[in-house]
Amino acid sequence: MSMVKKSWMASLIATIALAIVVTGCGSGKTQEAPAAGNASAANNVSIGMVTDIGGVNDNSFNQSAWEGLKAFSAAKDAKVDYLQSQSDADYIPNLNQFVKDGRSLTWGIGFMMGDAVKQVADQNKSAKLAIIDAVVDAPNVESVTFKENEGSYLVGVVAGLMTKTGKIGFVGGSEIPVIKRFEIGFTEGVKAVNPSAKVVINYTGAFNAPDQGKATAATMYNDGVDIIFHAAGSTGDGVFNEAIERKKKNKDIWVIGVDKDQSLTFGNEVTLTSMVKRVDHAVNQISNQVAKGEFKGGIQELGLAENGVGLPENNPNIPEDVLKKVQDYAVKIVHGDIQVPTVTE
């Protein structure tokens, strides 16, 4: 396996000389114990994280956020824990539980929590909050968004070059702006390299329904789709489960994962690649700012240039010539030669 195949992003960063800057109610709670004997200045820091309804083990961005917070805890001897939301009615009570406990920082994970974070922040102006995937207009909130359209464009290039049937699928959770950015970037990437390919789009309406993801994937594969990209939280687990069942009969079907390198969960047999969104780095970075007394509030937007999105380091199922094309397109996006849209033209 060549170095290009092992680490396409490392090669990209070297090429363009960039540094990585990225960076309750009906709920379950887990506490991460601080490491003993670490006399860090952050050992009085206590951070809480509220998941959306996808849950902390969604194999996606909630899980990535929690991994970033655990890494922060291990390095800084800080107390971290989470509350899982079973429905949107849990958002405000869960956020308030951490705020009323006097946490140094309270995280809300996911676009759907934007209104809840805004309300809690406005009612508790001395509290510090942060949110992933939404912009909250409050001085005591740090908002982190990602250019999912840029990373999705690159996996669209992969799908467009590697499809054998000319039919490619996209499975989304709810049709909200952040997921539309995944869809639009993906379709634009496919179109750039394979304008004759058809992209079949389906929104299940849920981020926590693996059965719906499995049924949707079955329909797509039956209709001749050979590559499916999902941006659907744990609903996407069902897409993978369907592909795993079919893989023994059809070696030419694939899934493109999301948020994390999902080959680590579902294996390389079915995972073509993933659109990695480095939520863990962002959570770790901002939590460290709190520990240092440097929290400012405001907005961060992380794309390819900030190494906030991209492909995993290892892509054993993608040929070297395709990875080289992906790198070429990534450089053009970073340099502004390609402007990836965020809305349908």
Automatic annotation (TrEMBL):
<feature type="domain" description="ABC transporter substrate-binding protein PnrA-like">
    <location>
        <begin position="48"/>
        <end position="342"/>
    </location>
</feature>
<dbReference type="InterPro" id="IPR028082">
    <property type="entry name" value="Peripla_BP_I"/>
</dbReference>
<keyword id="KW-1003">Cell membrane</keyword>
<dbReference type="InterPro" id="IPR003760">
    <property type="entry name" value="PnrA-like"/>
</dbReference>
<dbReference type="InterPro" id="IPR050957">
    <property type="entry name" value="BMP_lipoprotein"/>
</dbReference>
<protein>
    <submittedName>
        <fullName>Membrane lipoprotein TmpC</fullName>
    </submittedName>
</protein>
<keyword id="KW-0449">Lipoprotein</keyword>
<feature type="signal peptide">
    <location>
        <begin position="1"/>
        <end position="19"/>
    </location>
</feature>
<dbReference type="Pfam" id="PF02608">
    <property type="entry name" value="Bmp"/>
</dbReference>
<keyword id="KW-0732">Signal</keyword>
<keyword id="KW-0472">Membrane</keyword>
<comment type="similarity">
    <text>Belongs to the BMP lipoprotein family.</text>
</comment>
